[in-house]
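Meet the record:
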Amino acid sequence: MSAAVVVFSGGQDSTTCLIQAQQKYQQVHAITFDYGQRHRQEIEVAKTLAAQLGVASHKVLDVTMLNELAISALTRDSIAVSNELMDNGLPNTFVPGRNILFLTLAGIYAYQLGAEAVITGVCETDFSGYPDCRNDFVQAMANALVLGMDRELALVTPLMWLDKAQTWALADSLGALELVRDHTLTCYNGIIGAGCKECPACLLRSKGLAQYQANSPEILASLPK
């Protein structure tokens, strides 16, 4: 039986990946990480969506030690989310090591379940400037997991080369545009759906949706076959 583990935050990207995975794998498991994040509503949203979508299992894993180590606007309420880059060129919502930890633990969980793939919604084409969303990083992690566990495991990134408009198109092609639009949580300030309309995640999400709505036939046609 083919099986996959989806790194699932309840946001636009991971929800789209989960729905697509359910059409490609016989079993789809979801794993959500509680790292003491600023917008903790995402954990409840992930639970609700996982139940609604009928995943084979949904594990919420406590990794709050990351909060102790990684100082970011997403791990400290005292740091306001900024639309400006920090002096190091990164957004202040970057959580150092987050995807390194998440993919490592998801890989261990996939090993336990006998799943052959871990799916993550990271994207290099239209991303927020996070170095751990780049394809080179994912490929390095995939190689490390295979070597470290002596077992074949694919890290699958369906959105890696899609921009946000194409990600909306993918959700639409899966029959899930309304669900993703109205019930996912992408907002850095923890507001479901359209969000706060001010943080970088909301601006990227709304810009992509507007582009898709204005040019849906062309954008749908641009999706990889």
